[in-house]
Amino acid sequence: MESILITGASGFIGSFIVEEALNRKFSVWAGVRASSSREYLKNRKIHILELDMAHPNTLRAQLSGYKGTHARFDYIVHCAGVTKCLNKNNFERINYMQTRTFVEALRELNMIPKQFIFVSSLSVFGAIHEKKRIPITLTDIPHPNTAYGMSKLKAEIYLESLPGFPYVIYRPTGVYGPREHDYFLMCKSISRHIDAAVGFRRQDLTFIYVKDVVRAIFLGMEQQICRRTYLLSDGQVYSSRTFSDLIRRELGNPFVFRLRIPLFLLKVVSLLAEIRARIVGKPGTLNLDKYKIMKQRNWQCDISQAESELEYTPQYNLEAGIKETIAWYKEKEWL
Description:
Layout: E1 3-7, H1 12-23, E2 27-32, E3 47-50, H2 56-70, E4 75-78, H3 89-108, E5 115-119, H4 147-161, E6 167-172, E7 174-176, H5 182-191, E8 194-198, E9 207-209, H6 210-222, E10 228-232, H7 240-250, E11 257-261, H8 263-280, H9 288-295, H10 304-309, H11 318-331
Parallel strand pairs: 1-2, 1-4, 2-3, 4-5, 5-6, 6-10, 7-9, 8-11
Helix pairs in contact: 1-6, 2-3, 3-4, 7-11, 8-9
């Protein structure tokens, strides 16, 4: 039985990777912080491993404890990170520096796995091809315009700089599905009869259902991929109206007031939301980083390399993914 460690296992994507690893009969270790929720980690076959990546000495001791009994992990999927912060410097501290601390500890302890899978983001590219409206490709030079995107890119560059290190990097576009909170807010808004779109220029959106992200990751393990990077989406391009209409249909077609929010107004609201978050001490969904992501008009991406090298074929289009997601929200009484 091969072993796998999933960091950020209590989170949205991480918890789905844990479930799939159990289905595939791995010895599953869920890497979590001491304060992390265990809501989606209740299966008795899951081994919990607390990892304190903010303190290198503590982290080495925690990993050493595992090594003393089990040697090394066969696979590591590094999902731990943040998508929203009160202080923008925390993106670099957590997404980049703590990734570096983690990898350095693994190298020092001779615990390098067969694959170190890093879950990055399409946001590393920033707003490119906004006029040409052509897909982002792996040959494009990243120009992140958010602190989040920059932190992910710096972590990628670090992994690539290590000679022979067996990284595999996945850059998914917008990931949605059960347990996800940000897209859920849109569902909640539509259930309350408000459908808001941003900006007046055409916006080309891409999405990927969480189970397709997970599937790509395990395909990479099966193919024994090493030192490669992949873009991930469901292979389609959508408008914001398509997304909201599909949500609305699954909610029973409630009547909605359709609002079109100018970008300048969204920027003001995002700034105020960021200030409020600092006052109350809790990061919110809206901030200036998120504003730049919502402002971006071109999210098309080329997934041909994942299709050819991983034999990846998306199993969910947006219609199927939203149907399953809304059903889960209803079952759990989120809606």
